[in-house]
Design a protein that fits this description.
The chain is α+β, with helices and mostly antiparallel strands. It contains 24 helices and 26 strands. It has five domains: 48-283 and 298-434, no CATH class; 436-472; 476-586, Translation Initiation Factor IF3; 593-730, Immunoglobulin-like (Sandwich), CATH 2.60.40.770; 746-868, Immunoglobulin-like, CATH 2.60.40.10. Helix 4 crosses helix 5 and helix 5 (129-158) packs antiparallel against helix 6 (160-171). The longest helix is centred in the N-terminal third of the chain and has 39 residues, at 235-273. It is elongated.
């Protein structure tokens, strides 16, 4: 026998089955499959090419594109929230078992599943990455399905060419991609379109199953239920459709109903009682905010589903009845429902009518509307409506919500534009269902086309100019403009520490001379400083802008020490993102304050204030006024002193103050020569929102180390300060670097509300709690009101309080214009024996003339909390 070689011969293939000799399968089934696949690819060749590119583009967009790009609003909008509730599973807490959600169970558990899988995938840069790729990938696939369904529905209704055109329109739209990058709504939109297509294709039972799943993903796919009941011919088919739909919903809901039915009920209850937002109804209720919901931590209590962002004032019973009657007029008509265009039109009518009735609207809802505009009007007119709808949607978000929340007209414009498109879509759908309307509609289009086009162009121009003005008149650098402009002089120099900051400063102050610190400032430093000195020589004043975002790598101190030698330091203060320093030579002081009044006041028998003057007797809120002073040290000073200036309200309360070291040409007071006259300057900022009344100005000198004021030893004045006279503040538009809430955080009687507050989070016993409250009147005040400000401990005991008119007693509410924001500054003295703990500021309002009572605490609304801590 031959020896084994460790290998075996390959198995012998029978000759009749060898690949070289085997005959191709020519069975009828195999040939039929090949022919059908070939025919399918040939029939849909152009669409499949578009679909391939669409899938590739969507996939790459998910991976490489930030949702809001250079607008800087972040990416993956709601996916962060989806992950936050899915992450609760790490604590053993699951949706509709331990807590309820505004979303329905299918999506909630889909998010949980995506989160569990994401824990097995290493993230890239952000911990959201893996979760976003999984759940966002499903949304992308749903969006691909939406494109396919738009094509198939239009092909069935209008033919191949129109189907391809509709697919092309959808594929070229930015809005569906934008929404898919930030929200999950492409998934329920796909289920809505799929159930419609199955109804058109003669598969109503499968359509009912898909619609039921859609309802348990998000409520909107249930809109197809009344459509199906109406268009199915036989009562038996209608009953079966409803039964399948109900069974699908019941099967999905049953486990959650058995485990914790209260959580499931809470989800549907929240949808019914939720208050209005971003619709015409919300605007009529004077609500200009976004759709807010109860905090996630509150969702563990089913009763939190009744929470509302604002009280509803519209007669919703009558509004709903009117829309039901309008829908009934269309639904009860006899039509030939065998025509697919009729079914599509009825669905579009239902979707349009629903969104016209709906209390709320969110930007992601566009994915439910756009496909129906396309399948109803796959032509130029439909494209025009889509563009108008998209512009309105983008104007709402991100533009209004990120940049224009204080410009209510922007939300009015966006909401009216969207509502108009929805109304047109609904009427167009009704005209398809009721042919006598079509001639009237064509006539209206013909007569209104030209004036409507002209009106739109004018609207775009006017609103564009308004948006530009509103955008440029806000933020930190606009505050810089408001501060600098009243004090500007010819030949002033603005020195900017970085080219990045220069890009923000120059549009606000384009007429000044600039010197920008080079990025390679430390290379050839002497030459660069010589260039700076040449620019500063002869400048009437110097404004130094130090970029806080770019940061300090040594350039801040270098610039300040170089420029301080040119004059008095009139400003040295932080804005939100930059520090502003103002150096004013004597010639610049004389230009801005040409007249000074002799004072001859001696502080501490050492420092004499010879004269003083103001750049203006009246100033707009949100700007600044310059105080010019001439000092003389009668003898050498052994310490460095600082200046304070107080703005006092008519009732004597300090409204604002300025503290500034006395520095001239870079030298503090300890280095001033005896008998030397020193020209000083101080820029007093007047806060935006300051009550428009007359203020008294008070000036004094103190030792910053001890805090002790220098007494006045000769000249006119009080014990340690002098009265500089009055300064009248006039109204000006309110501007703040950090935006206030769109809606008041608390509301009182007669349309008075508080939109925001500023104050420390901690304070020590014996300190003074400095607060700013921002009041606004939403409608004309009929009477004057008095507010109580009470700081209470955890037991409700008052430890500090004040009473007075919001803002100032000299500016009663009856004089406030509607919409004006008034900054109310309050100082509450904390007793030295106050115990550490958490304290609440409660504010209550009562008619003027009524005496304060103990009920103020019970009626007070919490504005902020502050922690009293032991001194270290």
């Amino acid at each position: 026998m031959p020896e084994a070689t460790g290998t075996s011969a390959p198995p012998k293939i029978p000759e009749e089955t060898s690949p070289q000799t085997r005959e191709p399968d020519s069975s009828p089934a195999r040939i039929s499959r090949r022919v059908s696949i070939h025919a399918l690819t040939q029939e849909h060749h152009d669409f499949l090419l578009l679909l391939l590119l669409f899938v590739a583009m969507r996939g790459m967009a998910l991976l490489f594109i930030d949702q809001n790009g250079p607008l800087g609003a972040g990416t993956a909008h709601d996916y962060w929230f989806y992950r936050s509730f899915a992450e609760l599973t790490l604590r053993g807490q699951y949706p509709f078992v331990d807590y309820w959600l505004e979303y329905q169970p299918v999506f909630a558990w889909l998010a949980v599943g995506a989160y569990k899988l994401s824990l097995l995938i290493p993230p890239v840069r952000s911990h959201l990455f893996s979760f976003y790729m999984l759940l966002g990938g499903l949304s992308m696939l749903a969006d691909v399905g939406n494109l396919t369904l738009v094509y198939l529905i239009c092909r069935r209704c209008y033919g191949v060419l129109v189907g391809q055109r509709a697919a092309m329109i959808y594929a070229l739209l930015l809005l569906p991609l934008y929404i898919t990058l930030g929200w999950y709504d492409s998934i329920p939109a796909f289920l809505l379109l799929a159930s419609l297509y199955l109804l058109l294709a003669g598969h109503p039972r499968l359509g009912a199953l898909v619609s039921g799943m859609g309802f348990m993903t998000k409520l909107l796919p249930a809109l197809l239920l009344p459509v199906a009941v109406r268009v199915l011919w036989r009562w038996r088919d209608r009953v079966v459709y409803v039964a399948v739909w109900t069974a699908t919903v019941a099967v999905i809901a049953a486990p959650f109903a058995l485990i914790n039915g209260a959580m499931l009920v809470a989800s549907f209850r929240a949808a019914l009682v939720r208050s209005s937002w971003e619709t015409i109804w919300a605007l009529l209720e004077s609500y200009y905010g976004v759709g807010v919901v109860a905090a996630l931590e509150d969702h563990f209590r089913p009763e939190s589903a009744a929470w509302q962002g604002h009280p509803s004032t519209m007669p919703w019973t009558w509004i709903t009845l009117a829309f039901v009657m309008l829908g009934g007029v269309v639904y009860l008509r006899r039509e030939d429902w065998r025509q697919p265009t009729k079914i599509v039109a009825l669905t579009a009518f239902t979707v349009g009518l629903f969104f016209l009735w709906s209390k709320g609207y969110s930007p992601q809802f566009a994915v439910y509307v756009l496909p129906f505009i396309i399948v109803l009007l796959p032509n130029l007119w439909g494209a025009v409506l889509i563009l108008l709808y998209s512009l309105s949607n983008f104007l709402t978000f991100p533009l209004y919500e990120l940049f224009f929340t204080e410009q209510s007209w922007v939300l009015w414009l966006a909401t009216l534009g969207r509502t108009l498109v929805l109304a047109i879509m609904t009427v167009e759908a009704a005209a398809v269902l009721h042919s006598p309307l079509q001639p009237l509609l064509r006539l209206a289009k013909a007569r209104l086309a030209r004036p409507a086009a002209v009106g739109l162009v004018l609207l775009f121009v006017v609103s564009g100019a308004g948006l530009y003005r509103a955008y440029s008149d806000q933020g930190d650098y606009y505050l810089l403009k408001r501060f600098v402009e009243p004090l500007s002089t010819t030949r002033q120099l603005i020195v900017v520490s970085s080219s990045e900051a220069f890009a923000f400063v120059h549009p606000q102050l384009p007429k000044a001379d600039y010197w920008i610190m080079p990025e390679d400032w430390d290379i050839g430093l002497d030459r660069k400083l010589e260039n700076l000195k040449r620019a500063a020589d002869g400048a009437s004043q110097i404004w130094l802008v130090l970029d806080g975002v770019r940061g300090d790598d040594g350039r801040f101190g270098l610039l300040q020490s170089t420029l301080q030698k040119y004059g008095a330091e009139a400003t040295n203060t932080w804005f939100d993102t930059f520090r502003l320093v103002n150096i004013v030579p004597p010639a610049g002081v004389a230009r801005t304050v040409p007249r000074q009044t002799a004072m001859n006041v001696l502080f501490g028998e050492q420092l004499e204030l010879q004269s003083v003057g103001l750049s203006a007797d009246s100033v707009a809120s949100g700007t600044a006024v310059r105080l010019a002073m001439q000092w003389k040290a009668d003898q050498p000073l052994d310490r460095n002193l600082s200046l304070f200036v107080h703005m006092l309200l008519p009732d004597g309360r300090i409204y604002s103050q300025l503290d500034l070291p006395l520095i001239n040409k870079g030298l503090p007071t300890s280095r001033w020569g005896a008998g030397e006259a020193v020209q000083g300057a101080a820029n007093l900022p007047v806060s935006s929102g300051a009550p428009p009344v007359e203020y008294r100005l008070v000036l004094g000198v103190y030792d910053p180390k001890s805090g002790q004021r220098l007494p006045i030893s000769s000249g006119q004045g009080g014990a340690d300060s002098i009265d500089l006279g009055t300064l009248k503040v006039t109204r000006a538009p309110f501007v703040r670097a950090k935006k206030l809430a769109v809606q008041p955080i608390v509301e009182f009687q007669d349309g008075l509300g508080i939109k925001g507050s500023e104050g420390p989070t901690e304070i020590r016993p014996g300190g003074v709690l400095q607060l700013s409250l921002f009041w606004q009147l939403s409608r004309a005040g009929r009477s004057d009101l008095i507010a109580s400000y009470q700081l209470v401990d955890e037991q409700g005991q008052v430890i500090a309080q004040q009473f007075g008119a919001p803002g100032s007693d000299a500016y009663p509410i009856s004089q406030w214009p509607v919409g004006e924001i008034v900054r109310d500054r309050r100082q509450l003295q904390i007793s030295p024996d106050t115990r550490p703990g958490l304290y609440r500021l409660l504010v209550a309002v009562r008619p003027a003339g009524n005496s304060p009572d103990a009920g103020a605490i019970a009626n007070g609304q919490e504005i902020l909390t502050v922690k009293v801590v032991n001194p270290r």
